[in-house]
């Protein structure tokens, strides 16, 4: 077993016979006294490849006279054959050999060292595989394009096809390679017998991506790797947290997840664990550190709650159990006005935001995420979260585009603007009950079909059924109205009302032009739909006192104005409504009931100790003023007798 803070290194023994069996020795090496300097070993970055038809290498550990055959994949065997010198031994770290793959605890411990292992190596060797599909020609072109030539060399059809084939190799798709090249101080890229410096390789690929006919999916895939290769030379090797965890401190975990969650791993857990070593977050208390005994569903739940907040509801659905359905209360900040690509760094975009009050922000710099941000995407803040989330409207829910985006620099308020940290200290009214879908089944090269999310939501124990769907569509309508998409909001509102009519066999003849301001409960209370009110109040996540987004009226206020006595009593019986709640015009339920002449409701309100019958609205009118104006003598007498 390995001692704490120790690793194994592989001594690749030389042979002048290229066909001779590969002979190696394993030995233990302590990283404890590493300091900041690199060490005289190399680290291999490669793809394991298919496990069928393995080939053997002979490994001695501790006892030089013993040697056991160790089966490895054909790709690793080919890499070792290319790396073996004829006269000198070579010291290499290779995960498949230097970590006991049959010991999950050792894997978990060694995974936390990997950033340090690659950072301390004097060189990281990227092995792309053997020669195939004109890969030699591709590397010749990449070397020329990444050199000092004043112009990008011509890329004819054959060269472009060869480069494209090279960039489609599995190495570019794997998630572990991201940390490996990000940590490297010096990179050598090998493909067959060809070699090229890592920096020149990255520059050459960036030049290739400038051609118009390079597929967007391929650009996204390769730019994420070249961005890390280019940036590695400017980073300090690694940092150590108070808990003893090593990290490259590239950016927060939320941004890393948005960037790289579509990359592939044999075990789903590694799509999270492979990013931890690049995160700038303090993860010591996150419950995200490598532990393969935790199920994938539980790990995805933990990650979602860590990036947003512990109070949200998370349900994992989908065929592969890789779709997180998130429920929480949200506040809408604004929408994306337009997205501007960064001409210098094509892995970044500048997002311009228009806030709800119509003000336009300075550009918000974002990394190019797995799902690209588009014009019209909505920026919201979930209750309890510390970063904004970018979402996209779907039929009856929202799709998560960026789970934890960078905070906006300034937020407009009535008296000017405030910074993000000050904004978070305000008493924010989270009025929207959001249902968000965060897709981890997303592919690097396949577009997603949002319609499939509808089928996924129907599998939820909490979200199936016509009433739930109508309520979700209503929320979509309210959010769209919040960002001034009035036509789309009206359309969604009509769909929601039709859903309620279908579910309860009710008719609704009122005009809908302005009702997207209302919550579903306010709409039902206003229109006298007792059955809808009862069902909504039976749901745990429905707030009986939630105010409408523009009028600030509550369901109790609407029931009082319209004289719906049964609904009014239902709302009172919850014990969770504010009797004297003031709307945007400072009118109370008593004021509305007095104006409407609803004697029973006025009597109910006056029987409550916490009702103040003398409250004035913005015009200085009291409930008595309204009753007198409308000629409701009985109510005037009731109010005068208080």
Automatic annotation (TrEMBL):
SUPFAM superfamilies noted in UniProt: Ankyrin repeat (SSF48403)
Keyword Metal-binding appears in the UniProt entry: no
Keywords (A to Z) from UniProt: ANK repeat
Transmembrane segments: none
Domain Heterokaryon incompatibility, chain residue ranges per copy: 41-180
Any Pfam family: Ank_4
Top-level lineage group: Eukaryota
Stated name of the protein: Heterokaryon incompatibility domain-containing protein
